[in-house]
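Format notes (please read before filing issues)

Several people have asked whether sequences and structure tokens are stored in separate files. They are not. Every record keeps both together, in the order shown below: the sequence lines, then the token lines. Line labels are part of the format and must not be stripped during preprocessing.
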Amino acid sequence: MKLNVAVAAFIVGALSLFGASISSATEQQKHVAEALTYAQTAVNEGQKKGPAIAVDQNAKQALEHAKQAEHIKRDPHITEAETHLNQAIDQAAAEHADIATKHVQEAIRHLRMAYRK
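Then the structure lines:
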């Protein structure tokens, strides 16, 4: 009888951990999707040859969501996307919207790879 209770407790615990893992993965994917949305908006603004501030603002929002996704679970693609988003923000601050846009495009490539996992 004690063995059955122990086995049942183990199974319930394992299922709880499995459920939490799925929940975390889903939450991470939501943040990656949000980062992709903001990053794509940044690229669109950069391709319009608009002010660098529009690229900057959207890249910052994308970076914030990428950081939140990375906080849930480390991923080398998200880390690389963060690097490119930071570079995009620096370039946009220097009024180099074209270079900033290229960095955001590279960040999108990495975010897409993270999203596929």
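For reference, the curators noted about this record: The CA atoms of residues 4 and 10 lie 10 Å apart. The two ends are 42 Å apart (CA to CA).
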